[in-house]
Specification:
Organism: Platanthera zijinensis
Keywords: Cell wall biogenesis/degradation, Glycosyltransferase, Membrane, Transferase, Transmembrane, Transmembrane helix
GO molecular function: cellulose synthase (UDP-forming) activity
Shape: globular
Strand order of the largest sheet: 5-6-4-3-7-11-9-12
CATH superfamily of the largest domain: Spore Coat Polysaccharide Biosynthesis Protein SpsA, Chain A
Structural class: alpha/beta
Membrane topology: Multi-pass membrane protein
CATH class of the largest domain: Alpha Beta
Largest sheet: 8 strands, mixed
CATH architecture of the largest domain: Alpha-Beta Complex
Radius of gyration: 27 Å
CATH topology of the largest domain: Spore Coat Polysaccharide Biosynthesis Protein SpsA, Chain A
Distance between the termini: 74 Å
Strand content: 5-15%
Number of strands: 13
Number of helices: 28
Number of domains: 2
GO cellular component, one term: endomembrane system
Bound molecules: uridine-5'-diphosphate-glucose, manganese (II) ion
Length: 710
């Protein structure tokens, strides 16, 4: 058998290692200087703390650079060699018809149904945590549309098989025009229903009517399980007479007394329901807003999953999260290249890429125990009984009930893991600790494309939730530093710890954006003079780390201006979402409030979209997050202006204050959009006045306190 894939170590790995030694020497020198000059002065000990944290985080992150791997697959060989393709179950999660518009969710499902894959071996399962009749209705419509859409894609060899994305790009004429009209019809119907808030019974036929009448008795937090087989490949045909893949709607049982564990709970219910129905050995998880952009991605993943050398230990093949409709500058750093490309590639050279929740092909086996314990025979696909048969449906409903969650090890020993809001990170980590491996697959044509948040508040809300979820792992019995380093490997554990402490950046960033600025205002020098040799250590540390970051970012296809946004968002997150995420976590730990999964909005709001497309930040709401950002912005601006004025008057002081002035200027440059939104904009996305006023008040307070201390 020819090799289905190849890989090599990144050519820069050696340079990275050399750089590691020089850079660590500089860090040690700096820390030594701190210790030698240690004083009880608050500012200098804070700066020491900041540098210590930065150094620690830097150390944890070096594993990503130790042995990055680049891979290539040869999926065409699968066909040449007549490989039998295994059955594939696709899981799509949605949770709210308002934040996650059903017309987009069905597009995602259609893109997966249209995979270039034998229909009798492909099933698409949709979990609806919103338990919404609107979503079910949309999927009923989607099942009808699929009969036209699938043959259209197949016959015209279309690559972009999400109807939403397909019709967005390019004009539709001829047959495509007809398809577009059909899809628009579906969309209008769905949108009208969502606007109305319920499914009008005249929209559905008599057999469907019963379902919706029944539905009205439930609430979204208290209802029995509901499963609806919308397409069944053994029975249903598209308009060209080909079998359709299975399409199954599931709303798992929810009871107030039974914790539902958010997305991890939904995925586990899907895991059980699919076991009762099709039990495919290969699974694909997708977020509702992440459609397939290449119909042959399953074959690409199978290049690894079918490799007899890898298969016994291979848990999953992860594709990167990539996004469409990102604006030119990617103002919110939504691409997250550092996590989804650079980080994954780095981990791939160790135990394997981390799981990022979507675009990931699993071997079902891996979710049921360590590689040594699994017996392959339990994971053979079912193909005999009809999905709509009484028996199968009964079993499936049962599998979607809360009952399982109480008695079994679901979420702890098997399935997607509970206990963290970032169930993806946590599950991948646990699998690696169990001895499973994984692979990062990053083809040139994006396999999946999703939507990134389009308002600042959404973007920060998302990372705030991640921060809490990551802390939950850091401070659990499975802390990667203690447990991961032992169970997986030293470097893998350190990398996972780096992510677990992702929000810890808030400490050094807040210190560096606050105290040197106050000190500048009150003429207190903190750093080395320009004429001092130590100045060069500072310069080296700063330039080398930013330089390395830039090189890595560009190398994974980034643009300079997007890199600038990316590093800006690092600063902004540090003073907002990471800081508030840290607080959220502390509050949840002392038992005041249980952490919740706030969905990221995927809704298309006109104003938000227009501002996003024109590259302007959308603030709009008065959130405490923005007050902390506004305060730091104004403090930096004030100190910077003050510093410049002083520098102009007496050049002499420049020598010892230069680094502080530079730092201040750097922060000010980063926060230009904040000043604009506070003082120069009048649109809906500007900073609310109340936030600006509160920030000014807080700034004054800080300067007063600073005066008392200095
Ligand atoms: O109770 C819930 C909450 C969420 N979801 C689904 O989970 C997915 C991710 O939710 P989203 O609001 O889009 O979160 P993001 O922060 O954008 O998602 C990232 O982070 C999540 C973990 O916090 C991962 O699950 C995702 O895969 C990853 O893309 C969506 O399809 C939701 O419908 C559920 O099914 N049930
Ligand atoms: Mn999302």
């Amino acid at each position: 058998m020819a090799r289905l894939h190849s890989h090599h170590i990144h050519p820069r790995a050696m340079l990275n290692r050399i750089h590691f030694f020089f850079y660590s020497a500089a860090i040690i020198a700096l820390l030594h200087r701190h210790i030698a000059a240690i004083s009880l002065a608050a500012t200098s000990s804070l700066l020491f703390l900041a540098d210590l944290t930065l150094a620690f985080m830097w150390l944890l992150s070096q594993g990503f650079r130790w042995r990055p791997i680049l891979r290539q697959e040869f999926p065409h060989l699968l066909r040449q060699e007549n490989h039998q393709l295994p059955a594939l179950d696709v899981f799509i999660c949605t949770a709210d018809p308002i934040k996650e518009p059903p017309e987009s969710v069905v597009s995602t499902a259609l893109s997966a149904m249209a995979f270039d894959y034998p229909a009798d071996r492909l099933s698409v399962y949709v979990s609806d945590d919103g338990s919404s009749e609107l979503t079910l209705f949309s999927f009923m419509e989607a099942a009808k549309f699929a009969r036209y859409w699938l043959p259209f894609c197949r016959e015209n060899n279309i690559l972009e098989r999400s109807p939403e994305a397909f019709f967005e790009s390019g004009d539709a004429v001829g047959e495509a025009g007809k398809m577009k009209a059909l899809f628009e019809g579906l969309r209008e119907k769905v949108k009208a229903a969502v606007k109305r808030g319920y499914v009008a019974l005249n929209l559905v036929d008599s057999s469907e009517e019963k379902i919706f009448l029944n539905w009205k008795k439930f609430t979204r937090r208290d209802h029995p399980s509901h499963i609806q087989v919308l397409c069944e490949s053994r029975k249903d045909r598209d308009i060209a007479g080909h079998p359709l893949p299975n399409l199954i709607y599931m709303s798992r049982e929810k009871r107030p007394s039974s914790p539902h564990h958010f997305k991890a709970g939904a995925l586990n219910a899907l895991l059980r329901v699919s076991e009762a129905m099709t039990n495919a050995p290969v699974l694909l998880t997708l977020d509702c807003d992440m459609h397939a952009n290449d119909p042959r991605s399953p074959q690409r993943a199978l290049c690894y999953l079918l490799d007899p050398d890898l298969a016994p230990n291979l848990a999953y093949v992860q594709f990167p999260q990539r996004y469409r409709r990102i604006n030119a500058d990617d103002i919110y750093g939504g691409e997250l290249r550092r996590i989804f490309l650079i980080g994954s590639r780095g981990l791939d050279g160790l135990h394997g890429a981390n799981y990022v929740g979507t675009g990931c092909f699993f071997s079902r086996r891996s979710l049921f125990g360590p590689p040594s314990a699994a017996t392959a025979s339990n994971y053979e696909s079912k193909g005999c009984s009809f999905l709509r048969s009484e028996l199968v449906l009964q079993e499936a409903h049962d599998a979607a009930s809360c009952r399982y969650e109480h008695v079994n090890d679901w979420g702890y020993q098997i399935g997607f893991r509970y206990g963290s809001l970032v169930e993806d990170y946590y599950t991948g980590y646990q699998l690696h600790c169990e001895g499973w491996r994984s692979v990062f697959c990053n083809p040139d044509r994006s396999a999946f494309l999703g939507d990134a948040p389009r308002s600042l508040y959404d973007s920060l809300g998302q990372t705030r939730r991640w921060a809490v979820g990551l802390y939950e792992v850091a401070f659990s019995g499975y802390c990667p530093l203690l447990y991961g380093t032992r169970k997986a490997s030293l470097i893998t554990g350190l990398c996972y710890m780096h992510y677990a402490l992702w929000a810890v950046w808030c400490f050094p960033i807040t210190i560096y954006t606050l105290f040197p600025q106050l000190a500048l205002f009150y003429d207190k020098p903190l750093f080395a003079k320009v004429s001092d040799p130590w100045f060069f250590i500072y310069a080296y540390l700063f330039l080398a780390s930013y330089g390395q970051d830039l090189i890595e970012f560009m190398e994974v296809g980034g643009l300079i201006r997007r890199w600038w946004s990316d590093q800006r968002m690092w600063v902004i997150r540090g003073i907002t979402s990471s800081a508030f995420g840290t607080l959220d976590f502390i509050i949840s730990k002392i038992g005041l409030l249980a952490p919740g999964f706030n969905l990221t909005s995927k809704a298309n709001e006109e104003e938000v979209n227009t501002l996003y497309d024109s590259g302007k930040f959308f603030f709009g709401t008065s959130s405490p997050l923005f007050i902390s950002m506004g305060t730091i912005a104004i403090i930096n601006l004030t100190s910077f202006i003050f510093g410049i004025l002083k520098a102009v008057r007496s050049i002499g002081t420049m020598d010892e204050m230069f680094l502080q002035l530079l730092l201040c200027g750097f922060v000010v440059t980063n926060l230009v959009p904040v000043y604009e939104a506070m003082f120069f904009r009048n649109d809906a996305g500007r900073m609310p006045r109340s936030v600006t006023n509160a920030s000014i008040l807080l700034t004054i307070t800080f300067f007063c306190v600073g005066r008392m201390i200095s």
